[in-house]
Amino acid sequence: MRVFFLLISFFILFKCAAAQFKSTNCDSIQNYAYKSVKYRTAVDVMGKHLSGIMIFKQMTDSQTRIVFLNEIGTTFFDLSFTNEGYKYNSILKSLDKRSVKALLAKDLGMLLIKGIYSGALEINESKFLYKLKKRGFVTYQVDEECKPIKIENISPKKKKIVAINLQEANNQFDIGKISIEHFTFSFQITMTLISDAEE
Amino acid sequence: MKYIFILLFFASSVTTKAQLLGYQIVKDAESFKVNFSNASKKWQSVESDFIQVKQMNLIKEKLSSKGKFYYKQSNKVRIEYQSPYKYIMVINNNQMSVKDENKTSNYNTKSNKVMQSVNNIMLDCMKGTVFSNKEFKTQAFENAKEYALVMMPQSASMKRFFARIEVYLSKQSYEVLRINMVEQGGDYSLMTFNNRIMNKTLNESIFSIN
User: How many angstroms separate the CA atoms of A168 and B79, rounded?
Assistant: First the structure.
């Protein structure tokens, strides 16, 4: 009888697992290239407002660099991502705090899908799940072309920490609008693509 | 031998300090200061178009923007970026207002070091008081058509933002033609002022943001 229950339990577990890890048409996420794009960016944090231009640049050695500067041209920070990690090349003194740097790198690493993960875990319907090097997970919801449309950072206790919504640009190559919202404190970043024609 | 090296080192530092490609040091700096100051006193107002190019050498990128610049004696400046983004910065005496696409913010200029510094440089250029800005040590250069003022930051906080600031003036009128803000590492923001109109009546509302 005990063996029978064990067999039943394994059967139920197997069925559940199979349903949960059901494969999609997407073997991997087809992320946006971020070859060289500029975004009008607004940052609202704890009642303070900051604006500027965020530049994403794919460097030749597969490194992605993100530079955020104000409208006058002063650099807030310059951040490099590789698949293995990230490095601040420069950062304004007022932002040069460990927690701020980790927070910004996590948000931007989630967009790039690099530098902050210890590995990809599962595919569930149209969602991909990644484990952060630090605590927590990130899920990617993709569209029929396997491009990410919604990214969520969740804690080990499944509490939503950050949600990123992506809206494709008219050119279909870039993201037109990015909104990053934190749920544990008042922090929001919104980015709107600056098209080449506008420059 | 040791002294020769020391002398050579000092000689090379002096030469580096006193060089600006295509320009020579202004010999009669005192006359230049007086003439610049006198010319500036005649400007009740300035209205100008501007083009700003931010050059980022390491990532081989440049960002161009353009807009309108306004100045009114003695402490009012409006820098209005119109493309590719909308951004207005107004300084009216010691109060600074900033408006981007989403929000208007008001600051006391003393609370934002970089903004304060950029605005002070703009005001100094218009008022001909560049040499009295204590945050920079300024040296004047010239060629056949232009004067160039090279401003070297003196305080540690300014050195973090700028390696130097170059201000280019018309030799004929002393009007500001270009301002180049060079960062540590060589990236720079070059503002070029075109279609300058001096002493036009400017409405007070230009220097406030609603």
Answer: 32
Structure tokens at A48: 């303070």
- pLDDT > 90 in chain A, percent: 55
Q: What does the alpha-carbon distance between residue A49 and residue B79 come to, in Å, rounded to a whole number?
A: 19
Strand partners, B108: B95
Distance from CA of B201 to the nearest CA of A (A): 27
Alpha-carbon gap, residue B171 to B43, rounded angstroms: 16
Q: Is A30 helix (H, G, I), strand (E, B) or coil?
A: coil
How far apart CA A12 and CA A4 sit, in angstroms, is: 12
The pLDDT of A16-40, averaged and rounded, is 70
Residues of B in contact with A78 (CB under 8 A): 58
Rounded Cα–Cα distance for residues B120 and B142 (Å): 23
Asked whether the bond before B84 is cis by omega within 30 degrees of 0, the reply is yes
Q: For tokens 């230049």, what's the residue?
A: B32
The residues pairing with A153 across neighbouring beta strands, listed in sequence order, are A138, A162
Q: Is B105 in contact with B97 (CB distance < 8 Å)?
A: yes
A74-91 pLDDT, tens per residue?
889 999 999 999 999 999
List the single residue in A49, A73, A90 with the smallest CB-CB distance to B181.
Answer: A73
Tokens of B99: 């408006």
Q: Considering only CB atoms, which chain B residues are within 8 Å of A57?
A: 59, 61
Residue A3 tokens, joined = 């063996």
The residue to which tokens 């010319």 are assigned = B39
Model confidence over A50-69: pLDDT tens digits? 899 999 999 976 899 999 99
pLDDT at B57 over 60: yes
Q: How many other C-beta atoms lie within 10 A of the C-beta of residue B13?
A: 10
Tell me the chain B residues in contact with residue A41 when contact means C-beta distances shorter than 8 Å. Answer: none
How much helix, strand and coil, in percent to the nearest 5, is found in chain A? Answer: 20, 45, 35
Mean pLDDT of chain B: 87
